[in-house]
Write a structure and sequence with these properties.
Distance between the termini: 26 Å
Pfam families: DEAD (PF00270), Helicase_C (PF00271), RecG_dom3_C (PF19833), RecG_wedge (PF17191)
Radius of gyration: 32 Å
Strand order of the largest sheet: 11-12-10-13-14-9-15
Number of helices: 23
CATH superfamily of one domain: P-loop containing nucleotide triphosphate hydrolases
Enzyme class: isomerase
GO molecular function, one term: 3'-5' DNA helicase activity
Number of strands: 21
Shape: globular
Keywords: ATP-binding, DNA damage, DNA recombination, DNA repair, DNA-binding, Helicase, Hydrolase, Isomerase, Nucleotide-binding
Protein name: ATP-dependent DNA helicase RecG
CATH architecture of one domain: 3-Layer(aba) Sandwich
CATH class of one domain: Alpha Beta
C-alpha cells in the first residue's frame, strides 16, 4: 500500500502474516495470483457473488429461477440406481412444498451427514427433472436461529487456479482470507484520496466503503456503486499523472525556438507543393508551429489514416527547422520505408538548397563516414534513417527536430536516445498511420499532445471493399485480368498464420503457384516478396513492381508498411478471416493511391466464426480508420493492439477502456478541471491527493515521451 502520512501501513504486510494463510499457502498465492501483500489481496476483484441474503420458499421456484436458498426438513433419503447411474436422492420439505436434492459424487460422506427430521439451509442451482424442481450437489448447513434471515452480505467468489483448488483454495475459500482481512481494517488504513468536491459532484462512495463493498456488499446495487467508484479512481489517477507530465513539459521544459517562417519554407510552399493542403493538414501545421515557437519542447503525436498526407506535414515542419538554422531527422522502422521517405522527400526538394541524406544498416562504410562527418559539421540539413540513427557514432551539430514514423515499432528507450543527441532536447513529432481509438490515445498516449489529420486529399477516391468466398476465386482472378488490361497492377497477400515459418513459407509458395497458373508468363509478370528473402532481393522485387515491370505482387504482410505504387488498383487478401482489423485496413491502404478507382477483395473460407464475420463486415462498411480502430479495440481488447503493451497506462486492475468509456471521459474531464484550478495541487482540499501521488512516484512513471 502506498504510505500516506499518519496511517498505519497494515496493507504492506506480507500475505503469510494473515491469519489462516501461513508460508505454504502464501507461496501458492504469490505464484498463482501474484498476491504478495495484504494490499494485493484487498485489490483482488471477485468475479461474481453468491446471494445467500434471502431464504426463499419452495413455492418461489419457477422455470426462470437460477440459484436459490431454501430452509426445510429432510423427510427422506436413499441410494437409487446401479454403477454409473448410482445416486443419492433426498427430499427436503418446507411449509409450501417439496424439493429433490441429488448427489452423484461423495455419496457415502453425504449420507453420513444427513439426518431425518433435521432442519437444513440448502443452496444451489435449480434444474427440473420430469417437471419437478431439484438441486444437484447443493451446499448444505444445519439451520440455526441466527441464520433465520440469511447472510447479511453477498458471498464473494474469486478467480482461482487448478493448483489452488487442489490445495483447498478455490474461488470461495479465498473469500475466508478476504473476510479475515476486512475485519482487520479501519478507515485510517484506506484513507480517502479524492477531493470532497469530486465525491459530491459524482455522488461517489467513500474509498473505505468502496473497498469493503467490492468484496462483501449487502446487495448487487451497492457492489455496482463500489466498482464504479474504484474504476473512476483508477482512471482519474492515471489521467492526473499524465496531465501533470504534460503540464510540467508545457511549463518547465526548454525547447529550441523556430521563430521565423523563412525563405526555403516559402519557396517550397509556393512553387513545389504537389497539391493544395487539406484543411486538416493546415490545422495540424498551425498546432505544430505554435508548439515550436513557444520555447518549450514539443512532444506531439500525429495521427492520420493511410494516405492522409502526414509526410508532407512532416516535410514542411522540417523546412521550418532548417530555416531557423537547425537540423532534422526522420526515423522509420524498415529500410523499405526509409528508402521510400528518402526518395519522396529528395524528389520534392530537388530544386531547393537542402542537403538530404539517408543512413541505414546497409549504408556502405565510406558513405557512412562521410554522412557522419557532415552531420557533425552541419552540412547535412536533414537525415532519413532506420535504427542506425540511434548509434552513438551519429552526432549532430544542432538537432532541432526529430520525427519518428510508425512510432509503435520503436521502444520507449530507443526513442529517448534520439533526444539525447542535442544539448536542448529537439522537438519531437511521432507519426502513426495506425489510427488510435480515442480512449486508447487518452490512456496510452495521454502525456503527448495529439494532432489528427481526419481528411483525405481531394483527389482520393474511396476504395470499394467486398468480401468473396473462395468458391468464386476464378471470377476474382478474371477481375484482376480486366484491371491489368486497363494498365493497372494488383497485390495478392497471404497471411502469416502458422506457428512455424516453414508452414507459412509452404502456404505462400502454394499460393504463388496457384497465381502463376492463372497468370502465365510471358503474358503476365509476377513479383514475390516475403520475410525469408534477403533485403536486396526484396527491394529488387518491390522495385520491379513499382516501375510496372511486373503487374502482380504476391507476398506476405511484409508489404504492409511502405510500398507506394499509385498505379496499383486491386488488393486481394487471401484467408482474410485470419487477419486482424487494423492489419486488413493497413493492407487496404496500399491501393487507392492514384486517381483511379481501387478495389479491395477479402477472400475467405466459407466457415467463419462470429468475430471473423464481424471484422469482414466492418471492412466492407467503412474506410474510416478511426471507426475501424474503435471496433478493433472492442473485439480484441487493448492488450493485443500493437504498441500498447509497453505502456504502463493500460495496467488497470478494474477499469476497462472498452467497457468503461463513460468513466474514462468523466475522469479525464475532472483531472483537467482540477489541474486548471490548482496546477501544483497546493490547496488543502487536494492535499490527500498530492500525498497519494507522491507515494506512487517510486513506481515507474510513464515515460516523458510515451
Amino acid at each position: 500500500m502506498c504510505r500516506i502520512k499518519g496511517t498505519v501501513d497494515i496493507l504492506a504486510n506480507p500475505i503469510e502474516y494473515l491469519k489462516g494463510v501461513g508460508p505454504q499457502r502464501a507461496d501458492l498465492l504469490k505464484k498463482e495470483l501474484n498476491i504478495f501483500t495484504f494490499k494485493d489481496l484487498l485489490e483482488l476483484v471477485p468475479y461474481r457473488h453468491i446471494d445467500k441474503t434471502r431464504v426463499n420458499q419452495v413455492r418461489d421456484i419457477v422455470p426462470q429461477t437460477d440459484f436459490i436458498q431454501i430452509k426445510g426438513v429432510i423427510t427422506s433419503f436413499g441410494i437409487i440406481g446401479e454403477k454409473r447411474a448410482k445416486r443419492l436422492v433426498a427430499e427436503i420439505k418446507d411449509a409450501t412444498g417439496t424439493l429433490e436434492l441429488v448427489w452423484f459424487q461423495g455419496i457415502t460422506y453425504i449420507q453420513k451427514m444427513l439426518a431425518l427430521g433435521q432442519v437444513y439451509l440448502v443452496y444451489g442451482k435449480v434444474s427440473f427433472f420430469q417437471g419437478q424442481p431439484q438441486i444437484t450437489h447443493p451446499e448444505m448447513e444445519v439451520w440455526s436461529r441466527e441464520k433465520m434471515e440469511g447472510k447479511s452480505t453477498l458471498e464473494p467468489v474469486y478467480p482461482s487456479t487448478e493448483k489452488l483448488k487442489s490445495r483447498g483454495m478455490g474461488g470461495r475459500q479465498i473469500g475466508h482470507f478476504t473476510e479475515t482481512l476486512i475485519k482487520l481494517l479501519q478507515e485510517k488504513n484506506i484513507p480517502e484520496i479524492l477531493p470532497e468536491s469530486i465525491l459530491q459532484l459524482l455522488q461517489l462512495m467513500p474509498r473505505f466503503k468502496a473497498f469493503t463493498s467490492m468484496h462483501f456488499p449487502p446487495d448487487p446495487e451497492t457492489w455496482q456503486k463500489a466498482i464504479d467508484r474504484l474504476k473512476f479512481e483508477e482512471f482519474f489517477i492515471a489521467q492526473l499523472r499524465m496531465g501533470l507530465l504534460r503540464q510540467q513539459r508545457h511549463r518547465y521544459s526548454k525547447g529550441v525556438v523556430f521563430s521565423q517562417v523563412g525563405d526555403i519554407f516559402n519557396r517550397f510552399y509556393e512553387n513545389h507543393l504537389p497539391f493544395e493542403l487539406t484543411g486538416a493538414q493546415k490545422r495540424v501545421i498551425k498546432e505544430i508551429r505554435r508548439d515550436t515557437g513557444s520555447g518549450k519542447q514539443m512532444n506531439r503525436l500525429l495521427q492520420g489514416d493511410v494516405g492522409s498526407g502526414k509526410t508532407i506535414v512532416a516535410l514542411l515542419i522540417l523546412l521550418l527547422a532548417i530555416d531557423n538554422g537547425y537540423q532534422g531527422c526522420l526515423m522509420a522502422p524498415t529500410e523499405i520505408l526509409t528508402n521510400q521517405h528518402f526518395n519522396n522527400i529528395s524528389g520534392l526538394l530537388k530544386e531547393l538548397p537542402v542537403n538530404v541524406r539517408m543512413l541505414t544498416g546497409s549504408t556502405k562504410t565510406r558513405e557512412r563516414k562521410e554522412i557522419l562527418q557532415q552531420l557533425e559539421d552541419g552540412t547535412i540539413h536533414f537525415v532519413v534513417g532506420t535504427h542506425a540513427l540511434l548509434e552513438d557514432t551519429v552526432k549532430f551539430k544542432n538537432l532541432g527536430l526529430a520525427i519518428v514514423d510508425e512510432q509503435h515499432r520503436f521502444g520507449v528507450a530507443q526513442r529517448a536516445r534520439l533526444w539525447q543527441k542535442a544539448a536542448i532536447p529537439p522537438h519531437v513529432l511521432v507519426m502513426t498511420a495506425t489510427p488510435i481509438p480515442r480512449t486508447l490515445a487518452m490512456t496510452a498516449y495521454g502525456d503527448l499532445d495529439t494532432s489528427i489529420i481526419d481528411e483525405l486529399p481531394p483527389n482520393r477516391k474511396p476504395i470499394l471493399t467486398v468480401h468473396r468466398y473462395e468458391t468464386v476465386r476464378s471470377q476474382v482472378m478474371d477481375f484482376i485480368k480486366a484491371e491489368i488490361v486497363k494498365g493497372r497492377q494488383a497485390y495478392i497477400i497471404f497471411p502469416l498464420i502458422e506457428e512455424s515459418e516453414k508452414l507459412d513459407y509452404e502456404n505462400l509458395m502454394k499460393g504463388y503457384e496457384n497465381v502463376q497458373a492463372y497468370f502465365p508468363e510471358p503474358r503476365y509478370w509476377i513479383s514475390m516478396v516475403h520475410g525469408r528473402q534477403t533485403p536486396e532481393v526484396r527491394t529488387t522485387n518491390m522495385q520491379r513492381f513499382k516501375t510496372n515491370d511486373t503487374q502482380i505482387m504476391v507476398g506476405t504482410t511484409v508489404i504492409e508498411v511502405g510500398v507506394d505504387v499509385p498505379n496499383a488498383s486491386v488488393m486481394v487478401i487471401e484467408n482474410a478471416e485470419k487477419f486482424g482489423l487494423s492489419q486488413l485496413h493497413q493492407l487496404r491502404g496500399r491501393v487507392g493511391r492514384g486517381a483511379e478507382k481501387s478495389f479491395c477483395i477479402l477472400l475467405s473460407g466459407s466457415k467463419l466464426n462470429n468475430d471473423a464475420r464481424e471484422r469482414l463486415k466492418i471492412m466492407c462498411a467503412t474506410n474510416d480508420g478511426f471507426k475501424i480502430a474503435e471496433k478493433d479495440l472492442e473485439l480484441r481488447g487493448p492488450g493485443d493492439i500493437e504498441g500498447t503493451r509497453q505502456s504502463g497506462a493500460l495496467n488497470f486492475k478494474l477499469a476497462s477502456i472498452v467497457q468503461d468509456k463513460k468513466w474514462l471521459e468523466i475522469a479525464r474531464e475532472m483531472a483537467e478541471r482540477l489541474l486548471d484550478d490548482d496546477p501544483d495541487l497546493a490547496s488543502a482540499a487536494n492535499l490527500q491527493l498530492k500525498n497519494y501521488l507522491q507515494s506512487l512516484t517510486g513506481k515507474t512513471a510513464w515515460s516523458k515521451i510515451s
